[in-house]
Amino acid sequence: MPQRFLTDLHSPTRLAASLPAPGTWRPLPQAADRAAWGGLPDAEHARLREAAHRELARPWAGLPPDGFTAYGTTGDRETYEVAYFARRTRLIAAVLLTVLDGPGSAAAVLDEGVRLLCEERTWCLPAHELSHDADGIPAPDPGRPTVDLFAADTAALLAFTDLVAGEELGPRRRADLGEAVRERVLRPFRERDDWWWLGLHGEELNNWTTWILSNVLPASLLLDTAPQDVLATATRTVAALDRYVECAPADGGCDEGIAYWWRSAASYFECLEHLSSATGEDAPLRRPLTAAMARYPLATHIGGDWYVNFADGRPLLPQVEPGLLHRFGARTGEPEVCAHAAAMPPAAGLASPDVSLARLLTPLLDTAWQRARTTPGAPPLTARTWLPDTGVLTARARPGEERGLFLAAKAGHNGEFHNHNDTGSFIVALDGRPVVIDLGVGTYSKETFGPDRYRIWTMRSSWHNLPLVGGHEQATGHEHAARDVSARLDGSGSSLTMDLAPAWNAAAGLLAWRRTCALETARVTVDDTWRLAAAPTALALHLVTTGPVTAGNTPGTLLLGPPGHRLLLHYDAGDFDAETDEQPVTDPKLAAVWGGAVHRIRLTARTPAATGHSTLSFTAAPDAAHA
């Protein structure tokens, strides 16, 4: 039965009675309030001030005039987006410096930044633009603006800039700012019902919903001038949030990957905070689903900066604001979430699409967060987690320690948001670093979200830790899913068992492929038993790894992984021949994580048969760091 929890709590009647008058909601003080902003610890003040000055030393970036044409013809997203985000980062830096050092610290940059953003033809990215010309090239239509993730981000950036540093802008600039936000984002949001991310027509919702709402709602509260407009925005937001919750897995997981969690579940939390702050109603944050959402980063934490990165996840997180996660944990009554946030390193700078002004400034006034930040402990490093709805199991051999083996295994299906064809794949880490890896996602292009997505090598099952049967890779779609899935989590170890056969098309001839991924104290095993309609022309087990692969001291063993994190792989040398491919990594985002090359082990069956069995075993090599 559909849940309407927020809609019941915040009905239009209650919202009309509880929402503040337009322009009176002030979630952050003005920069001129030095008593509010002056209490930041010296080290934090110096770190942020340096980051702001680093961005302000750069000139304003000019948007490429052919950015939309380039995307439509060549698929290039990066050229336009780099300049687009650089502009917003510089404006964020100017607001930050004004908060840190007081009014007058960056007045000229503030004024120029607001002017430049308001003069942009559109705030929507070329890859998201809904209007096109006669040749099918994205072409912004100022009369019908597209509200995408970053148009909404820009609206909130300008709204919070006006809130905190509006006194640095002249009346005309502030008027232009407010009108631009209302015309480009707020009015289209309220007046059009064809935004798929609202879920008004039964669409399945993802990070777009909460990411946009977490920006549109505060922008309306801050800049809309008519009570009925604020009420309409809030009413539409509340209903969409309930539809988002209907689509969210009950286990709190995020099938889009850990990086998207920060713009999906974390943005949902921000929406609840905004509603609570504006209406005075306590946000429903201690419900089981919300608490489960807060715990997801713990479930996927391998160690250090490394996270489980199925789908379009990134194994090394982009710049995020851990103060947001700390508040999420505090509000949901999850002390381990707070401890995890406190142990996270601070963002290295401001230059990232994932840095938002509100996320950056709000923790500066959170005294509980600032206290936690000064005396961080070790991260919780939970023993094991099973997310049955998302289909992900994680387990570590030494709870509370990075040392030792870590296993992540995925069931699920191949129709997820930001999907890779990876049902049944797994990750093995040693001493906090992935060795048998999931590559993750590289630089986005037009191909990434088009019909050619699965021509990208990192998206295909042949570059995941999966079988290749008769030359057949896994297929795409919700129906290509693991079945008969069961997890075991007890004192003797953790395991995930599933039948992978439905993940392939019928032409592959799989009747059953039973896989069990298991972690005991000192060993990870991957046990496969298969039954095919006929003997395949070829059969291979693939493993993707980082450093060069070398032969072990005995037949049927291979050494893999970087020095200090070496795994010893045992396989049946009587049944399989081992070969290794080296794959150059030219994508800059992938190379920043894995270096200039990755390696794929191919264990090829000597005599492919219709039925068979294989066991792979991974243990720490003698030269591993903890040995």
Could you explain the architecture of this structure?
The protein is α+β, with helices and mostly antiparallel strands and 627 residues long. It folds into two domains: 11-374, Chondroitin AC/alginate lyase (Glycosyltransferase); 384-620, Beta-galactosidase, Chain A, domain 5, CATH 2.70.98.70. It is 36% helix and 19% strand. It contains 19 helices and 21 strands. An eight-stranded antiparallel sheet has the order 11-12-13-14-21-18-17-16, with no helix packed on it. It has a five-stranded antiparallel sheet with strand order 3-4-5-7-8, with no helix packed on it. Strands 9-15-20-19 form a four-stranded antiparallel sheet, with no helix packed on it. Strand 4 (392-396) and strand 5 (405-410) form a beta hairpin. Helix 8 runs antiparallel to helix 9, helix 9 (171-191) packs across helix 11 (227-247) and helix 15 runs antiparallel to helix 16 (335-343). The relative contact order is 0.08.
Sheet having the most strands? 8 strands, antiparallel
Number of helices: 19
- Gross CATH architecture of the largest domain: Alpha/alpha barrel
Rg on CA atoms, Å: 25 Å
SS content category: alpha+beta
Number of domains: 2
Q: Give the C-level CATH assignment of the largest domain.
A: Mainly Alpha
| Gap from first CA to last CA | 53 Å
Number of strands: 21
Q: Residue ranges: pLDDT <50 for 5 or more in a row?
A: none
Order of strands, main sheet, comes to: 11-12-13-14-21-18-17-16
Task: Specify the CATH homologous superfamily of the largest domain.
Answer: Chondroitin AC/alginate lyase
The CATH topology label of the largest domain is: Glycosyltransferase
Shape: globular
Measured as a percent range, the helix fraction is 25-40%
How large a portion of the residues is in β-strands, by DSSP E? Answer: 15-25%
Q: Averaged pLDDT, please?
A: 94
